[in-house]
Design goal:
Strands 1-2-3-4-6-5 form a 6-stranded mixed sheet. The chain has 2 domains: 29 residues, no CATH class; 105 residues, 3-Layer(aba) Sandwich (Aminopeptidase), CATH 3.40.630. The longest helix has 17 residues. It has 4 helices and 6 strands, in the order ααβββαβαββ. By secondary structure, the chain is α+β, with helices and mostly antiparallel strands.
């Protein structure tokens, strides 16, 4: 046996992947990255098949702001809600939220959840009926990331406990 044969791998082992930083994942790339998690969840009877929701604010110049969300596992997650400063105070944020909630209700969702920051819009979400369910302190430093939810279905609310007489 020659030396070159001894240096060759014994088996055709798969190559170890490298890690590459990408600027922005398109839909196909995102799906490929999420695929192993989706496969695992599906084996646990929680198929991960998000339905994307995009509501755009448009004028004669095109899209400027809107809402991006996902519906899966009986909830809608609002990832982004953005209204340009020049359009604030016109009820557009509320209209975007209401339309997203209608889509979530139509899909049979229990509720909608969203996160924001203490320096952004927690008051807005509280004003449209969202309740906080979690906080991440010092994110960013000196501020909080706040998680809000709104239950859409009265059937999803926990039953009141009865007290014995």
């Amino acid at each position: 046996m020659g030396l070159e044969a001894m240096d060759a791998p014994l088996h055709d082992a798969p190559m170890t992947p490298t890690i590459e930083r990408l600027e922005l994942a398109d839909t196909d790339l995102r799906a490929r990255i999420v695929a192993p998690l989706a496969e695992y969840s599906t084996r646990k009877d929680f198929a991960f098949t998000p339905r994307y929701v995009t509501l755009a604010l448009k004028d004669e110049n095109g899209v400027d702001g809107g809402l991006i969300g996902q519906v899966y596992w009986g909830w809608m997650h609002i990832e982004i809600l953005a209204v340009p400063q020049r359009w604030r105070g016109r009820g557009l944020g509320r209209a975007l939220i209401e339309q997203a909630e209608a889509i979530a209700a139509e899909a049979g969702c229990t509720g909608v959840w969203v996160d924001t920051y203490s320096f952004q819009s927690p008051g807005f979400y509280e004003a449209v009926g969202y309740l906080p369910f979690g906080r991440l302190a010092d994110y960013p430093e000196g501020e909080e990331r706040i998680f809000f939810q709104k239950i859409l279905s009265a059937a999803a609310l926990p039953a009141e406990t009865e007290t014995a007489a």
